[in-house]
Request: fold
Amino acid sequence: LTPPPPDAILQVMQTFREDRRGDKVDLGVGVYRDATGLTPVMRAVKSAEAHLVATQDSKGYVAMAGDAAFHAAMARLVLGGTVPAARIAAAATTGGTGAVRQAMELIHTADPRARVWISQPTWPNHPALAQSAGVEWRPYRYYDAEAGAIDRAGMMADLDGAREDDVVLLHGCCHNPTGADFTGRDWAEMAAFLERRGLIPFVDIAYQGFGEGIDADAAGLRHLASRLPRVIIAASAAKNFGLYRERAGIYMVICPPGERDTTQAMMAWLNRSSTGFPPDHGTRVVTTILNNPAMKAEWLDELTDMRERVNGLRAALANALRRETGSDRFGYLAAQRGMFSLLGGTDAQIARLRDEFGLYLVGGGRMNIAGLTEDTVDRVAAGLARVLCD
Ligand code: LMR
Reply:
């Protein structure tokens, strides 16, 4: 064996853990934190777990593709009834990461020639998951760092190189790492392009509810689903249910009704040949919450609080940076959505932020906004202005 390639996010987690300074700030891995810096167990999750402890009478295996009630609840949450159940094949997976991995396996099994087009930049694990499933992938430009906005012309020029039946990986909302999301018009234009060129969208939606709200965050994906014959979806309950370590994920394939049963059977078989039966506890917590009106209402309230807190921190940081720099250079932070924004910076600048100021960002300057607190915003802004504007 030779050492595996380093993972940018895991490296930051490790170095942060080993840092003994009391005033260090973790702006690395994408987890939500409250005002005290804690990643809390949501109240609705506690209620659902208490209910499961009281009522669950077996820990026997679930079905190979997971619990059908979880599939149905997640299909409703993500797709909001835009697609009939007869067109949806689904399998529970070990988290959203497992969902992306299994979807890559499915793509490769269905068509070994298919290439997956991946935004540049993206979550660093996307290309790794394609590669480990044997899928050829190609980059497409996505972000104009100078403008703090999507590079639409670059994106379409690169995607013009796609062949029929290639797959285009899109972030459903809260683009990781840039926070720059499609508008409704972008989604409509993308749908028309994919349709015209015979391309298959693969939408990774890991942060539904963290951008504008549950339905607004899925609106683009729902538009694709209502228009195109085939759509692949990877969804995660890690962030919006705060179930990070429970690994509750799902992938769904929307297809013509005549293809659904074979697709479903293949997805179950792929689970069997990789992880076996999917984990159950987190998925059952999610199903319990989504099928119980009182728990669901409480969960939506908590999710709204989390989203508003992150958006409030975005505005506070943008203001503090405006004061520090006397410019609107970081104004895009307030308009972007989700946990992440990309502040730029060389490797040396990211290292200086860490060593001199105790600020931990992922390489390239990805910052987890949810890692800020009201108490750290000003100090973080001062460090960022000193180092990035030097
Ligand atoms: C992140 O991007 O930080 C999260 O999705 C955690 C992970 O698995 O990388």
